């Protein structure tokens, strides 16, 4: 009997009624994600909800990426400080987690598009600046030629040469205003930051490319730079073509992008804890079914609110150096902060590993979020409304609830998946592929060579994942050989036909 006949008989003999019920929990070993508290965004909800509908993506992806984009729009114009000695910049690093086609890119693209529009507004007179610079550059060249001639004449006459006039100094080339950078090296990012003291937003469709780049060119040297970029502190870059180091007064870069769950575990949560993972906010909602939108987002109103946030200016010290304006907490907000920090410290006693490090970043994060939310509320207020001079207890309370009820449960979901045994994660990957492709049988060698699943390209992990699915009643082994010759059996498995029942598909 041939291999095909054996498998066919096995499938025919195993009717839907004789197979045990498959354990569907193998599809998702993670915690149920919390709902994003979209009402906490105030008037911005009027843009976030319709935008998520129009993009057929979870509202989380739009809302969380918006927080990061607005954090960079505010940038170093405002920092928040509850008291002397503690100040936080409004820098956020959210990672939009999800499988392919879960809506990550459409969600973040919507907010990036607003920032791109703002960039165009900022650069409206840039062509005129370039023309003026070209004129001044040519004039400076002629003044220099004249001055050099005067120096030569003075030396010939034995008199002191004239000092070079300011008009002979070539002017600095104007810099196009920027908010967003993508796939930039340390040197390029540092140069742009020296030209944009307000700070920047690093946006990548796939954050895996950003994380992989840390070791690609510098042997891991880029990682410390990015860890520092979360804090907004002074930074010096010595890796320059000339000998002069590049000094950055505020190394401030917000980050936003999508990442697949397995890449998250592999690139962010593997290896030693150097603090990078603890800086990243997790947003991992369940996908939403496609649905015709019932509302249309008003991009013009959202862009107007974003422009107001960008109108906030940095201050200058007596030497002309830019510095942030410090926004304090009102007394009621400080009291809430005291209570919240005590509660957060209690959580840390029961945590460990990466999640413990993540909890350690929450006090700074709650301040950052409270500042952003306070200014987001102001951005939609009527024209002429004075900007807030302090963070209210209301905004702080919303920020604290957002962390406790959304971001920390999301972190538990992400870090919990990172802690799962590899075999369990591989079994979940294999189960999802089976449910998507609906094969009657599967073969270990085919999975290795043709299925292209992360971590399942060697025989041992594929065997282990299949054993998990056998235990979960998804498949059963049907070893066979071609023809009547002796030799090694094929590693075939028949798939439980109960998986195709409409009740499972609906679920």
Walk me through the structure.
The structure is a single chain. The chain has 507 residues and is an alpha/beta fold. The chain folds into three domains: 111 residues; 231 residues, Rossmann fold, CATH 3.40.50; 43 residues. Helix content is 49%, strand content 12%. It contains 18 helices and 16 strands. The strands form five sheets. A five-stranded parallel sheet has the order 4-5-8-3-9, with helices on both faces. A four-stranded mixed sheet has the order 2-1-12-13. It has a three-stranded antiparallel sheet with strand order 14-16-15. A hairpin with a 5-residue loop joins β10 and β11. The C terminus is likely disordered.
- Flag low-confidence runs: 10-16, 502-507
- Main sheet strand line-up: 4-5-8-3-9
Question: What Rg do the Cα atoms give?
Answer: 29 Å
Structural class: alpha/beta
The percentage helix is 40-55%
Tell me the total number of β-strands. Answer: 16
CATH class of the largest domain: Alpha Beta
Overall pLDDT: 89
